[in-house]
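Task: complex structure prediction.
Instruction: return structure tokens for all chains below.
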Amino acid sequence: MTSRRLFDKIQGITISHVTKKYGSIYAVRDVSLDVIGGELLVLIGPSGSGKTTPLRMVNRLIEPDEGSISIDGQDIRGHDPVTLRRNMGYVIQQIGLFPHMSVRENIGLIPRLEGWPRDDINARVDELLSLVALPPEVFSKRYPQELSGGQQQRVGLARALAMDPPILLMDEPFGALDPILRMQLQDEFARVKGELGKTILFVTHDIEESFKLGDRIAIMRDASLDQVGTADELIFHPESAFVADIVDANKKYKHVDTMCVGDVAYALDDDYLLDGRMDGKDALSSMHENDIEVALAMEGGEIIGLVNALSLYRDAQGRLRDHAFEPLIFDANDSLSAALSEMKAHGISMAVVTSRDGQPTGMISMNETLLRLV
Amino acid sequence: MNLIDRVMDVWELQQLTQRTVEHLTMFAIALIVASIVGVMVGVIVYRRFRVATVLFNVLNIAETIPTLALLVLLLPLLGLGMKPTIVTSIIYSILPIARNTYTGLTSVDKEHIFVAEALGLSDSEILRKVRFPLALPLIAGGIRIALVFTMGVVTLGGLIAAGGLGAPLQTGIQLYDKDIIIVTGLWVGLLALVLDSVAGMIEHRLEVNRDGTR
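Output:
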């Protein structure tokens, strides 16, 4: 069946006094929330706080017992659920890919059901794979089980974008990934988010993730909404002890003077070290294999520079060293506040951390560090 | 007379080539029809949940009637020969295929169904694009069980003048001719074995595909 395109760019989603009860337990209780068109709104809360329920109400997977939801002033109950869902992208934790379909079939599923011509589907799949930095010629024929967790997650995102929906619903999309990979994918997503220009509702239990990605953050507790605001508002003006606790407001800036770079660095394993003399394309495929976004080009124990997969993906001609850019390098014992201000001065968000003998041992991300401190 | 000559003798006298063609024709018709009907029954039962128990009980009863009795019961309706043999095979084969289809369709991981709904697939699209392909290995397993049943019933058809390889076996038993019995018996056994292994290979391939590591 083919379904109509309901909206192009939306003004906003209005969730108005919704309540949902399972037996005697409230999943959500009188929750009202406005999502502004084009923003990324994070729903955060402990498990059982009801944070996923509003998300699933927006595409009618759950129907509220009371209250209503409207998009651009139109009640969503006026839309057929299937049509409505095809006008929204949905990303879930990694199991979401269908095991019997290749990457191409997974991404092209809805366009195929919508009766697109085969060539259009293929072109769209290639375009989306490139957007999530998976070379189509390598990945389109693979099956989900042949992909790493991070790659599956990217395919999941590409599938959600297949119909170019104006609304994206993301249900703990990075929840099942390990910390470094999660950080990389968050960075990547923060970058594509701007290009997409979509209205995004994002559920997570990770406060750092919500600070990093969210334009505004809605904090849920016991089926109710506690506070909605930007990260600054929540940190500096928490309205309840619960909010203050979740955002760790009392800890802000507390330790920055006593900490050194090594305290907040992420450890690097050998996968992140590549020989600067190797071919650019080989380096890219090695990075894909190990599912990493950034790597260090090394030559004879010396750091040549940082390389990132996205720029290699755009151009990998010649040797790896030609694509490396000079990173900021800190000793693990350097003062953290000094390091951060230097990074800020250079406008660089990532730096390399070395041990006393100059060997790279880790990486430090400015955003991540600031989030940990506040 | 050496062994090969004796085998060739039986083969030609009993027209085993022609008998084999008859045998496989009945077998193929029965299995194909049973597969189509069985899968359809499985899907219908899946869609009409309440029908499931009733229908499976009826099929279970049919399954308990001895093969020979069913063959004979059908004689007044369908006469002698191929027809009752094929119909009996089909009746026996529907249950395993339908039951496996139903189990396959209902046992698909809930997570996959949830995602399919969230992406905007309608119920019938979920059935066609998600449940059915994921149920294929189990459906193939049901057809494989039916294959063994069918081979047996078709051979019994020799009793009611259906032709096929059951006919020379009957002749052999009545004439007490060991050569005919052994040659035909081994040949039927070999055919069954080969067909079953081919089915096994197909089933295995489907399972492997489902895991995505072809």
